[in-house]
Structure formats: structure tokens, C-alpha cells
Amino acid sequence: MTLSPTATGGEAFTLVVNGTSVDLDLPGTVPLLQILRNDLHLNGPKYGCGLGQCGACAVLVDGVPARSCILPLAVARGRRVTTLEGLATDGRLHPVQRAFVEEQAAQCGYCLNGMIMTAVALLARDPDPAEATIRRELGGNLCRCGTHVEILRAVRRAAAAMRGCPGASAVPTSRPEIPA
Ligand code: FES
Ligand code: FES
Q1: Which atom belonging to ligand 2 lies closest to the Cα atom of 107?
Q2: Distance 172 CA to ligand 1 centre (A)
Q3: Would the pLDDT of 115 be above 60?
Q4: How many domains is the chain built from?
């Protein structure tokens, strides 16, 4: 299927977004996030700072996290763009998405797109990252709600599940026990 975003005149080129070819006729300077959200209705990536500083808009470009709010379309030309919507396969959540649900690693959820996309890229190249590595890799993604502990646990849970560790799904959640 070919999606047909609004044509406003500019440069004709093709993007591949979540495996689908998208024909565009737009200035190459338009930020990728604008097309993803406004034209392709892919609302996984969020508009946060708009300055490349918070990570809410992260997508994968050829498997590498990129900040789509400041990424010009021309830079993504001919490359594979993956958004949060493109992680699930056959209706099944990606293990990182599942782990975030299982760990209840959200309050408002606004940062989760960036956290999840960054974690997916990390685990693709390092299946068993050290805690310090996870912290460093996710450090550029801002969470104003303070769910950092749950997010770290979710990434560790996803890593274990993806390595096929027995009992990975039985990793206890971070919900504290409330004494009666
Ligand atoms: S919205 Fe893109 S980095 Fe903040
Ligand atoms: S859960 Fe609200 S910003 Fe992270």
C-alpha cells in the first residue's frame, strides 16, 4: 500500500515508513515528525520540546534512534523509518512494549515513545546491557513524571525475555507492597 500525504509542492521522494512506501512532494527541510503525525497519523512519536532535547519524538532510522522533530525529511530519504506503531508484529506487542506494560512504567506516558524506541535499539545491539549502559542510553530521554525506576526494570525485563531467560515474565513488578 502507498500512503499519500498531503502534497504541498516541493521535492518528490519516497520514504519507507514501517515497511510501507510513502510518496512525498514536500520541501526536504520539513521535519519528519510533522509528516508522521499530521499526514500519516502515526501518533506514537510525540511533540515535546521540538528542539531535539527531550526524546519524545524518537523514531528509528535504519535501526538507529533519531529525533524526528529536528530530522529533515531529506535526511530520511531512502532509509527505513520505524515508529512505535511499527514495532508490533502480527498484532503482538514487541517484547519491550510488553515489558513496559507489565512493569506499569508510565504515569502520563508522554516520554514512553522515546524510552521504548531507544530501548529497542539498545537491545538490538546489546542483548544483555549493564545497568549503567541502560541508564546512559536512556539518559537523553526526559521523564518529568519520575517513573525512572519502573522504566529501568522494564528494560531489564525485556532484555531477559528477548534472551529467552526462563522466568523472565515472572520478574516481580516494581509495585511496592502496602502493609495492611
Ligand atoms: S520533541 Fe523531539 S526531542 Fe523533544
Ligand atoms: S511518564 Fe510522564 S513524562 Fe514519563
Answers
A1: 1
A2: 32
A3: yes
A4: 2
Task: State the Cα–Cα distance between residues 80 and 88, nearest whole angstrom.
Answer: 16
pLDDT of the residue at 9: 61
CA of 176 to the centre of ligand 1 (A): 32
Pocket test for ligand 2, best of 103, 143, 150 (most atoms within 8 A of CB): 143
| Domain identity same for 76 and 111 | no
Quick one: which of 177, 44, 174, 166 has its CA closest to 99?
Answer: 174
pLDDT of amino acid 11: 81
* Averaged pLDDT of the chain: 90
Q: Which atom of ligand 1 is nearest to the CA of 68?
A: 2
Segment 65-107, tens digit of pLDDT? 999 999 999 999 989 999 999 999 999 999 999 999 999 999 9
Q: In what order do the strands lie in the sheet with 20-26?
A: 20-26, 11-17, 80-82, 58-61, 64-67
Q: How far is the CA of 140 from the centre of ligand 1 (A)?
A: 10
pLDDT of residue 89: 93
Q: Specify whether 71 is located in the same domain as 10.
A: yes
Pocket mutation for ligand 1, best pick of 37, 43, 57, 111 (most atoms within 8 Å of C-beta): 57
Amino acid at 140: G
Q: Is 50 in the pocket of ligand 1 (CB under 6 A)?
A: yes
Domain C-terminal end among 39, 61, 84: 84
Is pLDDT larger for residue 169 or for residue 40?
40
Q: Strands of the chain (E only): list them.
A: 11-17, 20-26, 58-61, 64-67, 80-82
- Domain range for 29 is 2-84
